């Protein structure tokens, strides 16, 4: 290599490292000091930073962009600067900041008002800036998105998304490339978590606008394709692959998933006991709580009309693709499967776009597909074994009304997962009749009624909320609770609606397992009197009168067990630890943990063994079995 080329490579190396340090260094940082550090690092084996241009960092352009954004600038200035901004990664990382510090996982440090002023462009400049943005997105995709997860770099995506031209109807070419980039980031957990936090901090109108862009893109894309036929499965398969339609819709749904996560954070804040208590106190004074962070989008706003009105063809297509994908990839989740190998629209992965009617339809389609497959397998096995082994294509339960729980338990306990997927037929001993649906419905109603009966001892009724909760004093074996979970799954699988009265906390535990975070806000929903007492303890302001008002309290929970008062320690040695003004928050936290976890752990874990729904395609694929039913 010639000396001239070596000098050029060395210069490029210094300039790209210099640009990276300027983006990531905390302020205030002198340019000369950062440049000196870049010279030192350039002489090491440090990898060359990705994404940055090989030219010197455009610090003067950063200042020009910020000035034009702050005072509005002239139309000519904005039209000149915006395309340059959108095509340069360094500028996207550095310009339009609210303060000089680099972004963090909690703060994108983006001045949205300034961005809106800057992007007031002529049609020609808007098109030019989108073209530059699309080229930059392609370059980033070619280099890989792993390093883009760092907040100082990830901020560039937030600036791109602020361009109003992305949501304007047209050929959507720039939007498709940005969505492909965003789709890759959504599959990376650190990047997704950061984006969700940043989106949750956007004004609600902006979050609604981002969601509206995706809804419009999906709707127009599907309506355009629908003219070529969505009437049957073959039509959908052909349309899905044309011009990468399925991939584009899937990427748009990933963007919607980030909006969904941001909205869930807002809902959590809205339902937090502190927010609810503050709103209650203000209502008592005739005022309304004005908290932007507590405002959220209705869940129906995530439903996409085009998807829900396309008919069963699209639902069948996605279920078929997911079944094949999971079969060939040994049940891996979507994030473990290369995106290029997928041909589905992403509806199963992101069920929030479906209305309740469409969700039930999809569950019914899956149930019928699995039932038919199990029937064919049983009949084929019987033929293969020359009928030496009786393979019934139905799951037959023969029970007596007087001992319905014992009979159901004994039979369901011996059936494997595959057998439970067969169509269900119920026979009441000594009664004639063909089960056309009415018998099995009666079976489920009687069985659930028996299991809910307080004399049975599995659950206790909470009169305040008219819900049932696990009986901490239950002597029933864990198999009984597993039976209850299996019954729930079996009923859903066979399209039977049950009258089940659990607080939302139970469904949260079923959806999220051991990672579920339950607290006072959840206790308010089904034991409001107890929750209000604990809130009063937390809101007490006078440390001197705390003991006189609430004491004596210890880190124990007292409960009645067959007429005798029992104590359960909230922490080791809790019976000897007094609750004080200083440790009251720990007491409340441990009290809630005892109610939701410790006291019922052995029961709630086993009711979670709802073997049918848990291992169904939808539940397993979405990694949240009841999620498709609850939204």
From TrEMBL:
Native source species: Durusdinium trenchii
SUPFAM superfamilies, alphabetized: Hect, E3 ligase catalytic domain (SSF56204)
Name of protein: HECT-type E3 ubiquitin transferase
Domain called HECT: residue spans: 416-603
SMART domains in the cross-refs: HECTc
Keywords tagged on the record: Transferase, Ubl conjugation pathway
Signal peptide start and end residues: none
Keyword Protease carried by entry: no
Tagged with keyword Transferase: yes
Superkingdom of origin: Eukaryota
The enzyme's E.C. designation: 2.3.2.26
Catalytic reaction equation(s): S-ubiquitinyl-[E2 ubiquitin-conjugating enzyme]-L-cysteine + [acceptor protein]-L-lysine = [E2 ubiquitin-conjugating enzyme]-L-cysteine + N(6)-ubiquitinyl-[acceptor protein]-L-lysine
């Amino acid at each position: 290599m010639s000396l001239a080329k070596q000098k050029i490579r060395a210069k490029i190396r210094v300039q790209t490292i210099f640009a990276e340090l300027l983006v990531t260094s905390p302020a205030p940082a002198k340019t000369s000091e950062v440049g000196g550090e870049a010279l030192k690092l350039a002489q090491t084996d440090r990898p060359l930073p990705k994404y940055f241009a090989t030219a010197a960092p455009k610090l003067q352009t950063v200042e020009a962009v910020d000035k034009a954004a702050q005072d509005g600038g002239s139309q000519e200035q904005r039209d000149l600067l915006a395309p340059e901004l959108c095509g340069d990664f360094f500028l996207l990382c550095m310009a339009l900041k609210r303060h000089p510090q680099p972004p963090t996982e909690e703060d994108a440090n983006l001045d949205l008002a300034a961005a809106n002023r800057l992007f007031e462009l002529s049609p020609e400049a808007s098109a030019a800036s989108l073209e530059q943005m699309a080229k930059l997105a392609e370059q980033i995709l070619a280099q890989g998105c792993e390093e883009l997860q760092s907040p100082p770099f990830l901020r560039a995506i937030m600036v791109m998304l602020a361009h109003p031209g992305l949501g304007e109807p047209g050929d959507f070419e720039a939007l498709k490339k940005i969505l492909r980039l965003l789709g890759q980031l959504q599959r990376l957990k650190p990047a997704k978590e950061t984006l969700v936090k940043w989106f949750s901090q956007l004004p609600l109108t902006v979050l609604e606008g981002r969601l509206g862009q995706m809804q419009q893109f999906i709707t127009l894309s599907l309506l355009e394709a629908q003219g070529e036929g969505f009437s049957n499965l073959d039509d959908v398969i052909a349309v899905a692959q044309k011009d990468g339609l399925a991939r584009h819709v899937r990427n748009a749904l990933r963007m919607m998933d980030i909006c969904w996560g941001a909205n869930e954070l807002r809902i959590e804040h809205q339902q937090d006991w502190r927010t609810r208590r503050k709103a209650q106190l203000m209502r008592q004074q005739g005022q309304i709580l004005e908290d932007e962070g507590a405002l959220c989008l209705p869940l129906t706003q995530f439903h996409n009309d085009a998807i829900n009105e396309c008919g069963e063809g699209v639902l069948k297509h996605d279920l078929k693709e997911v079944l094949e994908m999971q079969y060939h990839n040994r049940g891996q989740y979507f994030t473990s499967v290369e995106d290029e190998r997928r041909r589905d629209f992403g509806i199963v992965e992101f069920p929030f776009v479906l209305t309740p009617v469409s969700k039930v339809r999809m569950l019914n389609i899956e149930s019928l597909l699995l039932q038919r497959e199990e029937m064919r397998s049983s009949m084929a096995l019987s033929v293969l074994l020359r009928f030496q082994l009786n393979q019934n294509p139905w799951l037959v339960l023969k029970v007596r009304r007087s001992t319905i729980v014992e009979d159901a338990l004994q039979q369901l306990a011996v059936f494997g997962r595959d057998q439970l997927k067969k169509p269900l037929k119920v026979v009441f001993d000594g009664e004639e009749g063909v089960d056309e649906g009415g018998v099995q419905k009666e079976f489920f109603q009687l069985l659930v009624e028996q299991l809910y009966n307080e004399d049975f001892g599995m659950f206790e009724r909470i009169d305040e909320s008219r819900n049932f909760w696990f009986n901490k004093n239950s002597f029933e074996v864990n198999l009984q609770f597993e039976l209850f979970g299996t019954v729930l799954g079996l009923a859903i699988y066979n399209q039977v609606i049950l009258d089940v009265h659990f607080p939302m906390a139970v469904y949260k535990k079923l959806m999220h397992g051991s990672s579920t975070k339950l607290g006072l806000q959840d206790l308010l929903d089904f034991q409001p009197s107890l929750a209000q007492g604990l809130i009063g303890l937390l809101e007490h302001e006078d440390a001197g009168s705390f003991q006189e008002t609430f004491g004596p309290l210890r880190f124990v929970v007292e409960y009645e067990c067959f007429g005798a008062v029992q104590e359960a320690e909230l922490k080791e040695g809790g019976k000897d630890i007094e609750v004080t003004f200083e440790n009251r928050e720990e007491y409340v936290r441990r009290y809630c943990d005892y109610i939701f976890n410790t006291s019922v752990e052995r029961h709630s874990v086993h009711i979670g063994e709802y073997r049918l729904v848990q291992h169904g395609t939808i539940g397993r694929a979405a990694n949240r079995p009841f999620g498709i039913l609850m939204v």
